[in-house]
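Chapter summary example.
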Amino acid sequence: MPLFARTARAPLEYSRTLWMRLWVGAVMLFLYAPLIVLMIFSFNDSKRNVVWRGFTTKYYQKALGNDQLVEALLNSLTIAALATIVSVVLGAIAAVMLWRFRFPFKSAVDGTISLPIIVPEICLGVAFLMFFAAIGWPTGLVWPFNLGAITIAHITFCFPFVTMVVRSRLASFNCEQEEAAKDLGASEWQMFRDVLIPHIRPALVAGALLSFTLSLDDFVITYFTSGPDTITFPVKVYSMVRFSVTPEVNAASTLLVILTVVLTFIALKLQGVKAVSETR
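The structure predicted for these 280 residues follows.
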């Protein structure tokens, strides 16, 4: 008899498993069908997306040759990168602070950090617009030695998500590891660097991916905080689809989807390689 022989399933159990798999597959198909349709019609040889006229790649060349569209995409990538870096740092610090320390009004601070997650984006956009107008902060992408209003708004919106993810990871941390590190002579910084950081690294990667995605495709907050000289990709696409959805928009959106998937795959791959190397 094989050592790892698979036990036979009862007919009722097999039926439940089959129906569950079919249900999950149907839900996944329903969720990703719009992206599949978008990618297919980005190759449509027609100015109207409702009728398939043939296969072509000319709209990808047209999208890449659109200087305003490429500039908007670069603006979105720049803002998303800056917002992700700062959000991961602030979110990790806030999560460790709320997890480790006790201080007055801790519940109030915790609730305040969670407000950007709860408050509708339209309210945040109007609030940012009024705030930056009141203090006279210049609108735009980046101006010398300062972050632009869009980036600051995105950081405020994204870092609570990093805090939430990191705090969930810290809930499974065994505090005896800290005590063991201190008994072996580790300082507070060494314990934080060699014990705590490796434990929360998956949460940091997940928070970074979440922040990058939220910042990259945000429209509402960006619409209220962007200046006339700064156009991001979602705002540019919105201005292009106000009249009709063309294959050029589909091509640009497909490139953005592919870029996001590739970056996510690379991040997860690096995280897996790092985890394997640490177990050796």
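To summarize the output: The chain has eleven helices and two strands.
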